[in-house]
């Protein structure tokens, strides 16, 4: 931002903060503004009183008489001081009430906008960077409000002094401005330098923060100690901190230089002003009492100016951060998932994917190429394939999280009526979908919340939470904890407990069951479960399909997919094979058959087991190198 842009942006941003303050608490904002104006008026009044006192004191006559005549002005000065103190206290109390509300409003606006951004847009580095930069300005609104009030206060005081000075003699006003200008220049220059430094170093700072966070995170504790990763991280931290210290030194030097230049010009201007005052007094252009008032006004205004410079400096800096937050909120709104769209058919029976391709933003090649499939309610549809073949990407397309780059996704009703994903009301699409992703979020909250958070706005129903947990085989575990459902499933909190990987996965399963959506999309839902729990989890998925849910199962456990109604084998983003287990096993040289036989061979089996999970043949353990 250039100087002109900054000067233009400041009133706009201050206006935004004030508007937000008005929406949050109009009474508090009105009070703060009135208190500031009141303080300005008292300052002007005080100066007039001082002038009155000096005029009486410099008049001819006995000192006792002069003091007596100055008494009314002295009383006014005392009253004005008390009023100024009361107004300042009132303003402080109201600002304290207003600031957190403004911060909350701006922060909520930003975070709400960010959570509504299309997933594909968040994958674009340029969007990601803008959204990320917006994080740092959410508390700037609060600081800006405080600083705006402070700057307003000082400015009103200075304007009052300027008016009084201009009334006393017109030359006194340009004098005041000449002293102010160099300091204002210095303030803006420093603010811009600080901001651009922060912007350049933002990735570096983030990297340092995440390095330090690893050192204290429980899940990294093992490798930090056993693998000596801690020493390496600490060395990295020291090196990166040293680079940042270098930048701090550069900033401090530049700041000192700017301060020196601004101070020198301001000093020269003060000298000129006092010289001018001298000349006016000696030539009789100004009465001595007015000269005295002018000296007092210039001195208090210079003190105010120093505080103004500091506050404007911070204000500009905060404004630049707040501008980032506003930009991020605007960019997020531009890439938001539409709030409107066509209604889905009353009873969606299937999702039909037609010739869909998808390329992640910035990726060199597509992750899905010409994929066509149908997911029906009442069936289990399995997606299998090698790592990176595109299974997770396809589930995200099915869930409406990613819009295909080419092709269509139809949400189809019982009578064949259908709505394409891009036109559909996405809230309704999401309402039909229950997700259990590979890396499902583990909320640092209570066990009950971790289950019930999967149901959006619906009020929590503990009976259903318990039933979902029962179905996911985690109810007994949770209810055996010291604080049962109120336990926080993260160690380090009061009431905190540590769950194992498999226990977490069961809790995740319970969450998707509690959601009870017609389309379940589950990605490796049993990777951490023991064999018995795994069998039960798969049985549960089949039971859901029998209850007329559609289940899309992504898994590498081919013994489980053997019972699926339809299996799609994905290879390099395309559907290489499809059919049920028997059809796919009948294809000599087929990919599915090859994968299945490779897995079965580990157990010494050639045919799929009847109960879904192969059991080892007597005497056939894992091969020696695999057991390592
Ligand atoms: N956010 C992303 N940005 C760019 N490329 C991605 C992104 N996510 C996945 N990919 C790429 O898309 C391809 C398919 O990934 P996907 O996660 O869908 O595979 P998958 O079949 O689910 O793999 P796995 O079995 O390992 O979970 C991979 O080549 C991967 O590198």
What is the topological layout?
Elements: H1 3-24, H2 26-58, H3 63-115, H4 119-122, H5 125-134, H6 140-168, H7 172-200, H8 202-216, H9 221-226, H10 229-282, H11 288-334, E1 348-358, E2 368-376, E3 380-385, H12 391-398, E4 406-413, E5 418-420, H13 426-431, E6 433-436, H14 447-452, H15 462-471, H16 475-479, H17 501-515, E7 519-523, H18 531-546, E8 550-554, H19 558-561, E9 566-571, E10 574-579, H20 581-585, H21 591-602, H22 624-627
Parallel strand pairs: 3-8, 3-9, 6-7, 7-8
Antiparallel strand pairs: 1-2, 1-4, 4-5, 9-10
Helix pairs in contact: 1-2, 1-3, 1-6, 1-11, 2-3, 2-6, 2-11, 3-6, 3-11, 5-11, 6-11, 7-10, 7-11, 8-10, 15-17
Alpha-beta classification: alpha/beta
> What does the overall shape look like?
elongated
Global mean pLDDT = 85
Give the low-confidence spans.
612-628
Overview of the structural elements:
The chain has 628 residues and is an alpha/beta fold. It has 3 domains: 3-199 and 241-334, ABC transporter type 1, transmembrane domain (ABC transporter transmembrane region fold), CATH 1.20.1560.10; 339-432 and 517-615, Rossmann fold (3-Layer(aba) Sandwich); 443-516, P-loop containing nucleotide triphosphate hydrolases (Rossmann fold). 63% of the residues lie in helices and 10% in strands. It has helices at 3-24, 26-58, 63-115, 119-122, 125-134, 140-168, 172-200, 202-216, 221-226, 229-282, 288-334, 391-398, 426-431, 447-452, 462-471, 475-479, 501-515, 531-546, 558-561, 581-585, 591-602, 624-627, and strands spanning 348-358, 368-376, 380-385, 406-413, 418-420, 433-436, 519-523, 550-554, 566-571, 574-579. The strands form 2 sheets. Strands 6-7-8-3-9-10 form a 6-stranded mixed β-sheet, with helices on both faces. Strands 2-1-4-5 form a 4-stranded antiparallel β-sheet. A hairpin with a 2-residue loop joins strand 9 and strand 10. The longest helix is centred in the middle third of the chain and has 54 residues, at 229-282. The model is unreliable at 612-628 (pLDDT under 50). Residues 123, 360, 363, 367, 385, 387-393 line the site of adenosine-5'-triphosphate. Adenosine-5'-triphosphate is lined by residues 123, 360, 363, 367, 385, 387-393. Residues 351-597 form the ABC transporter domain. It is found in: Cell membrane. It is a multi-pass membrane protein. Keywords: ATP-binding, Membrane, Nucleotide-binding, Transmembrane, Transmembrane helix.
């Amino acid at each position: 931002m250039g100087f002109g842009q900054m000067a233009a942006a400041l009133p706009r941003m201050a206006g935004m903060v004030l508007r937000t303050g008005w929406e949050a608490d109009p009474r508090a904002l009105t009070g703060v503004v009135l208190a500031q104006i009141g303080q300005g008026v008292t300052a002007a009044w005080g100066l007039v009183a001082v002038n009155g006192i000096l005029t009486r004191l410099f008049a001819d006559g006995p000192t006792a008489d002069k003091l007596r005549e100055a008494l009314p002005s002295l009383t006014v000065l005392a009253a004005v001081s008390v009023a100024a103190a009361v107004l300042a206290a009132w303003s402080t109390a109201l600002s304290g009430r207003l600031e957190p509300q403004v911060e909350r409003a701006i922060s909520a606006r930003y975070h709400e906008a960010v959570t509504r951004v299309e997933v594909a847009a968040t994958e674009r580095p340029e969007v990601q960077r803008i959204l990320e930069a917006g994080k740092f300005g959410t508390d700037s609104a609060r600081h800006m409000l405080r600083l705006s009030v402070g700057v307003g206060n000082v400015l009103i005081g200075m304007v009052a002094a300027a008016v009084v000075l201009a009334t006393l003699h017109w030359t006194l006003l340009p004098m005041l401005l000449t002293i102010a200008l160099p300091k204002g220049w210095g303030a803006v220059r420093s603010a811009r330098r600080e901001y651009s430094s922060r912007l350049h170093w933002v990735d570096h700072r983030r990297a340092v923060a995440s390095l330090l966070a690893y050192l204290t995170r429980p899940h990294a504790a093992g490798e930090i100690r056993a693998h000596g990763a801690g020493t390496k991280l600490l060395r990295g931290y020291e090196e990166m901190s040293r680079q940042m210290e270098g930048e701090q030194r550069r900033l401090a030097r530049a700041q000192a230089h700017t301060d020196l230049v601004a101070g020198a010009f301001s000093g020269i201007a003060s000298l000129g002003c006092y010289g001018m005052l001298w000349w006016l007094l000696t030539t009789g252009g100004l009465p001595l009492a007015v000269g005295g008032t002018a000296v007092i006004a210039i001195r208090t205004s210079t003190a105010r100016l120093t505080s103004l410079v500091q506050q404007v400096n911070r204000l500009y800096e905060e404004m630049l951060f707040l501008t980032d937050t506003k930009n991020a909120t605007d960019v997020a709104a531009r890439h938001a998932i539409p709030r409107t769209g066509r209604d889905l058919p009353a009873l969606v029976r299937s999702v039909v994917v037609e010739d869909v391709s998808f390329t992640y933003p910035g990726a060199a090649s597509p992750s899905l190429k010409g994929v066509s499939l149908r997911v029906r309610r009442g069936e289990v549809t399995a997606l299998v394939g090698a790592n990176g073949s595109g299974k997770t990407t396809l589930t995200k397309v099915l869930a409406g999280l990613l819009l295909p780059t080419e092709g269509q996704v139809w949400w189809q009703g019982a009578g064949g009526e259908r709505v394409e994903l891009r036109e559909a009301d996405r809230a309704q699409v999401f309402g039909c979908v229950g997700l259990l992703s590979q890396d499902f979020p583990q909320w640092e909250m209570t066990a009950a919340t971790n289950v019930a958070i999967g149901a959006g706005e619906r009020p929590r129903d503990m009976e259903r939470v318990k039933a979902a947990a029962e179905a996911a085989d985690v109810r007994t575990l949770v209810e055996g904890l010291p604080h049962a459902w109120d336990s926080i499933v993260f160690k380090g909190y009061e009431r905190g407990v540590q769950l194992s990987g498999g226990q977490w996965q069961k809790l995740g399963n319970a969450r998707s069951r509690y959601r009870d959506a017609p389309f379940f999309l589950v990605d490796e839902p049993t990777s951490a479960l023991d064999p018995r729990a795994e069998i039960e989890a798969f049985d549960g998925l089949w039971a859901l399909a029998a209850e007329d849910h559609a289940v899309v199962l992504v898994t590498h456990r081919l013994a489980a997919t053997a019972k699926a109604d339809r299996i799609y084998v994905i290879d390099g983003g395309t559907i290489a094979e499809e059919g049920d287990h028997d059809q796919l096993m009948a294809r000599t040289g087929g990919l599915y058959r090859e994968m299945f036989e490779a897995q079965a061979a580990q157990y010494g089996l050639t045919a799929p087991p009847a109960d879904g999970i192969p059991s080892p043949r007597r005497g056939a353990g894992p091969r020696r190198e695999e057991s390592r």
